[in-house]
Design a protein that fits this description.
With 201 residues, the protein is an alpha+beta fold. The chain has one domain. 43% of the residues lie in helices and 12% in strands. Helix 1 runs antiparallel to helix 3.
């Protein structure tokens, strides 16, 4: 019942409650992003959604305009504290996860959930193996099990395992717990960057 009905209602209530606070963030962060390099405030990233549908995921832009796409060997996006592609304000909004807050709009639209597996790049669907495909049976989330407990400190393989665990155990109490742990992890700024240093050019 929660998975198919109340979770969506829960998402809408939380997103609408948070929206006025997000507008305040937008007022302060938006100009900082723009005047850093006179570029777009938002970055619209194509991502894989529920049932394999591709959607535009909204983020505050943390990188310089036209920054090259760099990937780790496991095809995940490269993420490091010394990433030269980040702007000064970009480093701050990454550390605090403020760059993810525009995804509240994705939640209201129905593309995403507050809690769920983090959405993959569209081409990832061609590499799912076995139970990994379960992650697209639910809406992707602004935060999820891996993000709450590990953020970027574990491999893509372990993230997939955690996504499968979440889908198989999805319930209201688990979502509440992940929200609570996400807030603590974000405030402590723990495990922000990937341990992987090997990248594809």
């Amino acid at each position: 019942m929660y998975r198919h009905l109340f979770k969506r209602l829960f998402d809408l209530i939380l997103a609408l409650m948070a929206l006025p606070f997000w507008f305040i963030i937008l007022i302060f962060i938006g100009p900082c992003i723009y005047f850093q390099d006179k570029g777009s405030i938002f970055y619209n990233a194509p991502r894989l959604g529920k049932d394999g549908k591709v959607f535009k995921m909204y983020k505050f832009r943390s990188m310089k305009m036209n920054a090259p796409d760099i990937r780790n060997k496991d095809r995940s996006t490269y993420n490091a504290e010394d990433d030269p592609r980040l702007t000064k304000i970009g480093k701050f909004i990454r550390k605090t996860s403020i760059d993810e807050t525009p995804q509240l709009l994705n939640v209201i639209k129905g593309d995403m959930s507050i809690i769920g597996p983090r959405p993959d790049l569209p081409e990832a669907i061609n590499h799912y193996q076995g139970e990994e495909k379960l992650k697209i049976s639910v809406r992707p989330g602004i935060s999820g099990y891996s993000q709450a407990y590990f953020r970027n400190s574990i491999s893509a393989v372990d993230k997939f395992k955690n996504d499968v665990f979440y889908v198989n155990n999805l319930n209201f109490l688990l979502d509440l717990k992940i929200i609570f742990i996400t807030l603590i992890t974000s405030l402590k700024r723990k495990n922000i960057h990937s341990n992987s240093r090997q990248i594809n050019s």
